[in-house]
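User: Predict the structure for this protein chain, please.
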Amino acid sequence: MNDETWAPHVTVAAVIERDGRFLLVEEHTQFGLRLNQPAGHLEAGETLHEAVVRETLEESAWSFTPEALVGMYMTHFGKPGESGATYLRFTYCGSVGAEPENRALDPDIVRTLWMSVDELRAASDRHRTPLVMQCVDDYLAGKRVPLDFVQTHAVGPRLADKTGSKG
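Assistant: Here is the predicted structure, written as structure tokens:
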């Protein structure tokens, strides 16, 4: 048995449309400059809602208000039969304020840009993952789940001790 504990990476992303254009970030990756929605990892103690608001602000400087969950996506990187890396992505849609905040972007972010769906499709070779287009397509297809679909429950130390679970 493998002593390594397998755990999926939980990420969040924001699909933001304004006047027929979508907010994207251009970022440095190990494969060069890539396009992505504002996205990132859930941090300890955060709700998914808090994470997507924070990540959008950090990566784009726009204040994001989530309005619905577009979808939950699972991607596995690795060879069959190996643990590899699994990502669970929760993609939200919503709106941003009138102007971005005056703040520095995350170090890997080169710039933000607004692209039409046609421009985004034409740049598919530059997408960070196939989920970039999949999430926009699901959004355009009207896929929406109310925000209260995702429930967050804080478990205090006494209950966690009794159940043998910490989450």
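The chain has one domain: 9-163.
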